[in-house]
Description:
Blueprint: H1 2-26, E1 34-35, H2 37-47, H3 49-69, E2 75-90, E3 97-116, H4 120-186, H5 192-227, E4 236-237, H6 250-260, H7 262-283, E5 288-299, E6 306-316, H8 324-390, H9 396-431
Parallel strand pairs: 1-4
Antiparallel strand pairs: 2-3, 3-5, 5-6
Amino acid sequence: MRKRYNAKFFFTFLFFVCSLFYSAFARPFFPKSQLSLKDCIAVGLKHQPDLKAAREKLKGYLAGKGAALSFYFPRLELDSDYFRGNFFAVQGPLSEIFPGTFTVYYTQLSASYVFEDFGKRFARVGKSEAQVEQAVQAYQKERLTVIFRISKAYYHLLKAEAFLKLRGDDLKEAQKNLALAEGLVQTGERSKIVLSEAIVSRDTAQYDLIRAEHQTADAVDDLNQEMGVSNPPAYKIRANSSIFPINFTLMKALALSFHLNPDLLAQKAKVKEEQAEVNEFTAEKWPVLSGSASYGWVDEVFPPKFSTWNFGVSLTWPFFNGGFLNEKISEFEALKKREIAKEKALILKIENKVERNYRAVQDARSELKAAESEVKAAEENYRLTLKRYQLGLSSSAALSLARAGLSLARAHQVQALSHLRMSEAEVYYSIGMP
């Protein structure tokens, strides 16, 4: 019986240890229990699957560039053959042809190299480099998108937590007013209608608090999704006012967007790709100068003993192809002009978007300043109304109205601060700055 209990304890302990290891490896690593926006971005850049897909795509194009560069190196081949069959051996005049059965073992090491192809290899490498640049910018765009989405989810969670705190404060104030109303009713200074109004205000505040708790939980789920994690360890976020302040002019923002925006850089690379296509088909009109050499062994028995060698230089020049090259050149010239037109249209679009987002930041700053003034006025009004209510100079309806005005003013301040944060993130995203 004792052995049975010992075995049960051993397996329970083993299961507990395995559960700890599974939890450690299944959950994503978080740098700390209280995360700033930079910490959330670091987690997202590590775990977001969309970013991993863009990274693997970039690796594929880098491999394609390496394949294009390989044409600048010579080709080495080893050829080993075995033949047996009915060959015709010619000896003397053609009338003396004697069929016979032969066995041939043949091994050869050969090398070939293109000395000059008048731009063919250069055009292929240029095309591959343009494709790599487009993949780089696609990865950069995906990275910026991850950062932007995490920033939005982070600011949304900050707003939800601010509203949660605000609703908690509203509930405390409603409970205080309820206690005050109960005391006034018991002393006969107020009628029971005052108590009923206080109870309704308390219940409404409780409902608003529950709704704010659910909105905060939803915001946490959204942030986890944008970071690319599931079942994360418990964490809190650090309430910093802004991590990306806009401290540059509109002209500076436009200049940065023309140098950093990944969509624009990818479009420029697309123009280069079409130009490389034109160069490649243009180079096909010119000859190719190449050389080759080989050394091997041949015999009727294995291993072969008789050596054989050769070397040569060849010049290949296509004279006529039915107009194929000219038509392909015209095709890609047209495609290049189309991509240039798209680039100009994209510049106008980026310029318009950056200007709009920059002006939105200025509007949000003015909105926040006005909201702060509104909060100060509402706090003073509530303080005076509460004082008058305690002295019997104001009604419960006036007190409820003053408290609602204070709550609304604080909500406006939270909304304005969130709007400013979102607007700043929009500016950085439209510019292409991480």
